[in-house]
Design goal:
The protein is mainly alpha-helical. It has five helices and no strands. The chain has helices spanning about 1-20, 30-55, 60-85, 95-100, 100-125. The longest helix has 26 residues, at about 100-125. The radius of gyration is 16 Å and the shape is elongated.
């Protein structure tokens, strides 16, 4: 349940940064700019989410935590992002979920959670055998 709530928080913040990036157009292509902001912000958001998750839970592998975060994000994208932001601009669920950008960010999300696990959690759970 904690991972689900943290995943929702990560998604809300990520979508907020994505949407906010359209207000401060720097690049000529606002969509590319928003995707770059999202890609950049996923790293610290997932790192923070993993930090919060592992404060109380040390036995769950980062791959599972990352996949929970990803499934929550994909579900919320399917229910909220696509109907509100993609369909009005001529897209649909198929184009959203088959876009390479979605999968790059999905891999990044899971990868950061796994990286956090191996850097911050796993070394503290190993026992040294003589």
């Amino acid at each position: 349940m904690r991972a689900i709530l943290i995943g929702i928080g990560i998604w809300v913040l990520a979508v907020s940064f994505y949407t906010l990036s359209f207000q401060f157009q720097i690049l000529e292509d606002p969509e590319q700019q928003a995707n770059m902001v999202l890609f950049t912000m996923v790293m610290p958001l997932v790192w923070l989410g993993s930090f919060i998750y592992y404060k109380k839970e040390r036995n769950t592998h980062g791959f599972l935590v990352g996949n929970i975060f990803l499934l929550i994000a994909a579900f919320l994208d399917a229910v909220i992002t696509v109907p509100l932001f993609i369909i009005p601009h001529g897209g649909n669920h198929y184009t959203f979920f088959t876009d390479i950008g979605f999968w790059v960010i999905a891999l990044e999300l899971v990868g950061v959670a796994v990286l956090y696990y191996y850097i911050r959690v796993y070394p503290n759970t190993k026992t040294l055998k003589a």
